[in-house]
Design goal:
93 residues; mainly alpha; 4 helices
């Protein structure tokens, strides 16, 4: 496994110290996996039913309570916002 150093503001670090029981490296690792997954979905422009199901479960939404029209509207809006967000990402080295 590779180690990565992340710089964070001191204020955030002080807040993190309050929750010493949290494995912060695991939180960051999961966030990176999720973020990369969203970038890959936006590159493909298509979200599989499995990916959509996982996202809805993560958001704790009852899929059965959402109409198809509303689901399509949410999906289109999520794709638009994700595309907008991912197009503003800047990677520094």
């Amino acid at each position: 496994m590779v180690n990565v150093t992340v710089s964070i503001p001191e204020e955030l670090y002080n807040k993190m110290k309050k929750y010493s029981e949290v494995k912060w490296s695991e939180v960051v690792r999961k966030a990176l996996v999720e973020y990369i997954g969203r970038l890959e979905v936006s590159e493909r422009g298509v979200l599989s039913s499995d990916e959509l199901s996982v996202m809805l479960k993560a958001a704790e939404l009852d899929v059965g309570s959402i109409s198809l029209d509303k689901a399509i509207k949410y999906y289109d809006e999520a794709r638009r916002l994700e595309w907008k967000r991912s197009s503003t990402i800047r990677v520094s080295s």
